From TrEMBL:
Pathway: Aminoacyl-tRNA biosynthesis; selenocysteinyl-tRNA(Sec) biosynthesis; selenocysteinyl-tRNA(Sec) from L-seryl-tRNA(Sec) (bacterial route): step 1/1. This is L-seryl-tRNA(Sec) selenium transferase. GO terms for biological process: conversion of seryl-tRNAsec to selenocys-tRNAsec; selenocysteine incorporation. The gene is selA. PANTHER family: L-SERYL-TRNA(SEC) SELENIUM TRANSFERASE. Coiled coil: none annotated. It comes from the Bacteria.
């Protein structure tokens, strides 16, 4: 009897509740909802249903499918370059300027002076050359692409010398040995896990050697009885042996970083003093811009990279160029506070404490909370195992466990962290304008419970 009551699809989709919605999508969803109903009736999991319930089910699924799954979050973890939360934030004004490019025809590959086809890379070359004092620049879609393109261009069927202590694996199982293999390069490991000397590089060089490569240890550090060779020394040896020297920096920074983060982490400007063949780094980490892989170095080598057919698959679009160029211009104008990543990194500890205390005053009448001094990390594989000071607000409520409070916050798009069985809101990454939002959410969720 229930099976006979299931409405016909063609009649059901004419309901007024679906007016103005995509008929094609409503039809697809309706078929799925009615088929699920049929299956559940046969399994005797459904004993009754009504049409209003079916309409609601279809509308809910329509909303679920057509709503954006990407949502803006409040990052209260304290991790500034949080890979899972989209890494670096972009300055709002930068994005507004990029909108003009994205919504207009533009001179992406058009030379306005000559009135003919131009090169897309010229748009970023001028500003980066000025900032970093390099011969030439190439931008691809991320630093992994940069590594692959460089190895494939210069080291196919040739040896690349790399220290064993730098054979990294980063997120998503991106491993240097596998990348080399797929690029056609031949890996030649030298040294040991904890110690590599300059003589190891010298002894490894053969007729088939093309490159001496250094790789940034993005997500780990080797402490204790250890040593490694600086890129400056590698670069000198490469020039002497007429080889390419290349540093995969992972996340390069332009200027020295606060809290002694730059110790043993030379800036891009510092590295350029050794006149390297090639460097590559990410645009969306410590640079504080959009996702991109930035390659800088010798003009003759960059020209060869541009001739590799793989580049067409790895190149970036007009929006990336617009956002990256605007970011680089902020560096050139010394407007570093306009780069959110650097602004958060450089915010004084006293300011974070004041913000934490302000929120405490708003919520302490209904939530047990305490302002504590803590530490966090930059994140994103930037400065492994290096801590930066911060202030956080601990949250406790009745007999709720920490994971329950964390879940309530997460459902309200606030991402916190749990430490010592307490939920922490770390103010290193909480934007000042988000404090009011957090207070309102906490009041809604806990004040009258």
């Amino acid at each position: 009897m229930l099976l006979k009551s299931i409405p016909k699809v063609d009649k059901f989709i004419t309901n007024k509740a679906f007016e103005g919605l995509s008929k094609t999508l409503i039809t697809k969803i309706t078929k799925e909802v009615l088929e699920n109903l049929r299956v559940n009736i046969l399994k005797k999991d459904v004993k009754n249903f009504d049409e209003e319930g079916l309409i609601s089910a279809v509308l809910d699924e329509y909303q679920n499918i057509t709503s954006s799954s990407l949502k803006p979050l409040i990052n209260a973890t304290g991790i500034i370059v949080h890979t899972n939360l989209g890494r670096s934030l972009l300055n709002e004004d930068i994005f507004k300027n990029a909108i003009k490019i994205a919504t207009s025809y533009n001179n992406l590959e058009y030379d306005l002076e000559k009135g003919k086809r131009g090169e897309r890379y010229e748009h970023i070359t001028k500003s980066l050359k000025k900032l970093l004092d390099c011969e030439d620049v190439l931008v691809v879609n991320n630093n992994a692409s940069a590594v692959f393109l460089i190895l494939n261009t210069f080291c196919k069927n040739k040896e690349v010398v790399v220290s064993r202590g730098e054979l990294v694996e980063i997120g998503g199982s991106f491993r240097i040995p596998e990348v080399m293999s797929q690029s056609g390069a031949i890996l030649k490991e030298i040294g040991t896990t904890n110690k590599t000397h300059l003589r190891d590089y010298k002894n490894a060089i053969s007729e088939n050697t093309s490159m001496l490569m250094k790789v940034h240890k993005s997500n780990y550090s080797i402490e204790g009885f250890s040593s490694e060779v600086s890129f400056e020394e590698i670069s000198k040896l490469s020039k002497y042996e007429n080889l390419i020297d290349y540093y995969d920096m992972g996340s390069g920074h332009i200027f020295d970083l606060p809290y002694n983060l730059s110790k043993n982490e030379p800036s891009i400007i510092e590295l350029m003093k050794s006149n390297p063949s090639l460097l590559s780094f990410s645009g969306d980490k410590l640079l504080g811009s959009v996702q991109a892989g930035i390659i800088i170095g010798k003009k003759e080598l960059i020209e060869k990279l541009k001739k590799n057919q793989l580049l067409r698959m790895l190149r970036v679009d007009k929006i990336t160029f617009a956002l990256l160029e605007e970011s680089i211009n902020l560096y050139l104008k010394n407007e570093l506070d306009s780069i959110p990543t650097l602004q958060m990194l450089n915010t004084k500890i006293e300011v974070l404490e004041t913000r934490a205390k302000d929120l405490k005053k708003r919520i302490e009448s209904f939530l047990k909370c305490e302002v504590i001094k803590t530490s966090t990390m930059v994140g994103g594989g930037t400065t492994p195992n290096k801590k930066i000071p911060s202030f956080a607000l601990t949250l406790e409520f009745k007999n709720f466990k920490a994971n329950k409070i964390e879940e309530i916050l997460r459902k309200n798009l606030i991402i916190a962290r749990i430490e010592n069985d307490k939920v922490l809101l770390d103010f290193r990454t909480i934007k000042e304008e988000d404090i009011e939002k957090i207070a309102n959410i906490l009041e809604k969720e806990f004040k009258n419970v």
